Amino acid sequence: MPATIRERVRALSAFETVKTLLFVYVVFTQSLKAQRHLRARGFRQTFSDFWTWLCQRVIFLALRLPAAKQKVDSQLGEAALKIENSLVPKGPDVVRHLSLPAEGRSPEWILPEMDKMDGEAVKHTNWKGGRMSGAVYHGGEDMQQVIVDAFRKYCVSNPLHPDAFPAVRKMEAEIVAMCLRMYNNPTGAGTTTSGGTESIIMAVKTHRDWARAVKGITEPEMVVPISAHAAFDKAAAYLKIKLHSIPVDPETRKVNVSRMRRAINSNTIMIVGSAINFPDGNMDDIPALSKLAKRYNIGLHVDCCLGSFIMPFLDRAGYPCDVFDFRLEGVTSISCDTHKVKGNVLSFLHLNWTDLDAFCLHFGGVYIVRIRTKGGLYGSPSMAGSRPGALIAGTWAAMQYMGQDGYLESCKNIVGSAQKIVRAIREEIPELYVLGDPPASCVAFAARDKGGLNILAVGDKMSERGWHLNGLQKPAAVHIAVTRLTVPVVDQFIADLKDCVREVKVLSSSMSSEEKGEEGNMVALYGLGNSSAVGPAMVEKMVTAFLDALYKA
Ligand SMILES: *Cc1c(COP(=O)(O)O)cnc(C)c1O
Ligand SMILES: *[C@@H]1O[C@H](CO)[C@@H](O)[C@H](O)[C@H]1NC(C)=O
Ligand SMILES: *[C@@H]1O[C@H](CO)[C@@H](O)[C@H](O)[C@H]1NC(C)=O
């Protein structure tokens, strides 16, 4: 039948047209993607990324060959055992509690048992002596007492139930209000979270949701300095966001702003700057990043986790630095930690709500609002559901105890000590140089000439003297985050550093390569390189209003 044949031919050609269109669409979107990628990273970077990836695949496949696999497994096992041995106390007198005791223990048993466990650890690292960098941010015994008393008072409180714990709700709202003023945005909004990482993830989520609602971006990307905290990689992985890592200027250690600009495209939701960054304590050019954010109408998150209660006091302490907070119009969110200065675990996410209000107030923003068919309404401000109210009380107490004068004094001492270390290295230790020009509490140093002094070996020598510092890669360097505990021992630090540099120099010139094989931890580790009558929309608004009210101070 000619008619049915004609129909079939027509159907076929229609099918061909659809296929061609689909093909063109795929080629078009893919080449657009490739072009964005190339623009952001450049040909050389793209090629070197591809090369690295290829090498890794080849090595990965080679390591699956039986002979290689056996060797790798045994070496991995060895390394794992070494690490285990250094962390887990072993021996006949170590009692392990692997199941619930059949009968409850007495308080007289519990505390001494904890002391016993600590006894093992204290042998390794004595943080009270101020020699441990970046792990414990302690504010002194008196402050500790204030925090512990607050913890005890609000031990079982939970801010998920503000009706049951009105004081905790009030304190949390006040903490946020105090921090917002500190960062020059008294009309802004914020929440407390479990720490810097959660704050950063919440900030990225808010920008992603804002970009989707306001700009229709479904394949979000963000542009982040290589020196930014790993929390951004976490956020990118959790929230399915493509992350472009931008190199820093080798001299100033600030992110290369022109490279940053090149990586911005129509899918970019936000850029990031640190004040200060973790690896070497330097601050990105936030005013320039703010201009970029304004120009492209994207978000700018400033990570102040490490700089938290130091950066806002720098000017008054006599250490002027660039503006980095909400005074800059492009800054849309800031994360800040309280525990990095005073031994507490709470962090803040500050959003410039005015900028994001189209989204945040009407769509929920960082808040999650759930309308369940069973169980009623549920609203919570961040990733956690139940939260420990004790931490909020402790933070509030600590902030009241410190006051502006306390933080200012603390800032002067901490930054003064860090500057002293910087000066000593620049003027008295010619073998070393300071990375960039760190404005605040954290200083990183590296060996001057390549192939000369092994800085990581210096770090290991410092560990032998009880200093617990962090090793860095690219370039190999060692950093110290100065805290209030370090202040009284800063001269000792400088003297020890000089000694260790001398020791490593002598050792490396007299030692055979065989002996050099006996590497310390730092060398070994870093050297390797909805149902409701009023309707869902109304309910959502009500719950959002409820959540907003929680933060009214
Ligand atoms: C510590 C830190 C973070 C993350 O803080 P956590 O509380 O450890 O999650 C983020 N950024 C910088 C610069 C930091 O130093
Ligand atoms: C917040 O963003 C708005 C809009 O961009 C801006 O006008 C304001 O200056 C920013 N900063 C503060 C502190 O509100
Ligand atoms: C930033 O990167 C560009 C391109 O790679 C380079 O030409 C420029 O010199 C860099 N600027 C700084 C300050 O490093």
Report on this model:
- The chain is of the alpha/beta class.
- Among the domains are: 21-84, no CATH class; 160-397, Aspartate Aminotransferase, domain 2, CATH 3.40.640.10.
- It is built from 18 helices and 13 strands.
- Strands 1-7-6-5-4-2-3 form a 7-stranded mixed β-sheet, with helices on both faces.
- The longest helix is centred in the N-terminal third of the chain and has 61 residues, at 2-62.
- It starts with a helix and ends with a helix.
- It binds pyridoxal-5'-phosphate and 2-acetamido-2-deoxy-beta-D-glucopyranose (2 copies).
- The site of one 2-acetamido-2-deoxy-beta-D-glucopyranose has 4 residues, from helix 8.
- Its main location: endoplasmic reticulum.
- Belongs to the group II decarboxylase family. Sphingosine-1-phosphate lyase subfamily.
